[in-house]
Amino acid sequence: MSTNAQLFERAQQSIPGGVNSPVRAFRAVGGTPRFIARAEGAFMWDAEGKRYVDYIGSWGPMILGHGHPAVLEAVMQAARDGFSFGAPTEREVELAEEIIRHVPSIEQVRLVSSGTEAGMSAIRLARGATGRSKIIKFEGCYHGHADALLVKAGSGLATFGHPTSAGVPAEVVQHTLVLEYNNLEQIEEAFKTQGHEIACVMIEPIAGNMNFVRAQVPFVKRIRELCDQHGALFVFDEVMTGFRVALGSAQSVYAKLIPGFRPDISVFGKVIGGGMPLAAFGTTRQIMQQLAPLGPVYQAGTLSGNPVATACGLATLKEIAKPGFYEALGAKTQALVAGLTQAAQAAGVPFVGDSEGGMFGFFFTHALPQNYNVVMATDKERFNRFFHGMLDRGVYLAPALYEAGFVSAAHTDADIAATVAAAAEVLKAE
Predict the structure, then answer these.
(1) Active site residues
(2) Any bridge partners for residue 152, and if so which?
(3) Phi/psi at 365 (5° precision)
(4) What is the pTM of this model?
(5) Which of 92, 108, 281, 423 has its Cα between 20 and 30 A from that of 158?
(6) 172 touches 162 (CB < 8 A)
(7) Could you tell me how far CA 92 lies from the centroid of its own chain?
């Protein structure tokens, strides 16, 4: 049996950094990544046979937990019928219909294979539909690794972005404006000076890549108004929040607080694939008519609508649509955050947490951060110690301060209680 350390050393010989997605390398927290051998329900086992309560859930998709019987059966049947055809299937139509049924802002969707692909396609569609080039995104919101979106803000108000990755030419991001999340003054100024050139505003309604930070209701409301006034499109990136925070996704949460609210374009991933590589973007029929083969905006993919992935996603969506699912999931997540908060208070450790549906986050500070700069100022070293203390006790949290966590339907009250008890031990040792 290989150890985690042996596997990591071996991996680094053939894979850059030893991982196929950077956060898995544990660089933010230090130590050796755990190589996962198998998972079931709310648990994962590493190469050394150690069991962990899983609060990553494959970074969000495993809302039912690992190996749900109905999903497994659907995937096995689909695999027996064929892995890929490169031709239309009835199941991809069914999955599209299921997404549309739960998300009123969408009349048509296009299925793709990754959140990055869906995000960049949504941007291209927005630009094609409006005939404009400039886009607005917010610092701390991650929309995939497409070139035009790998940008961070400059120091001034409504500053043009500069690439944050080597290999991205400056001219590729010259039309990308990056503003501060939840900053009303900056979004007002951007539209005042350049509103006639802005194709779209793209946002994570609950940002999951600066941990868990909500877009404030007045902020979302004002963006909606500004987009309407200036003819720009409002894009909700729900790759992480879609069907994770509510059956109607995050936009349904905001629609309860902002009468009549709808985004123009929505981007989905993770949960709609149930753990398989699948994502989507959708909007009104009128805007979607701009896409090939009907319109001039080109987008294509060999594995788009893959029959095994759509089987997995469709089975997942049918399970989570059952009555009471989100009430139970939300209660578990709230219990976890409340328990962690109480444990921190008992230990005299500054701590705040928040959750929506099956998604949660926490910070070692006194108040919930509202933007990326505040997140960056929280106690990273304390988080790292907490992470390793929990890992040693069989609790697998995201290996970085900047990532949200996820609870699944497979987590039991006993799992939550055990997690809180482990946290109390770790925090007392601070």
Answers:
(1) 142, 237, 270
(2) 162
(3) -160, -175
(4) 0.95
(5) 281
(6) no
(7) 22
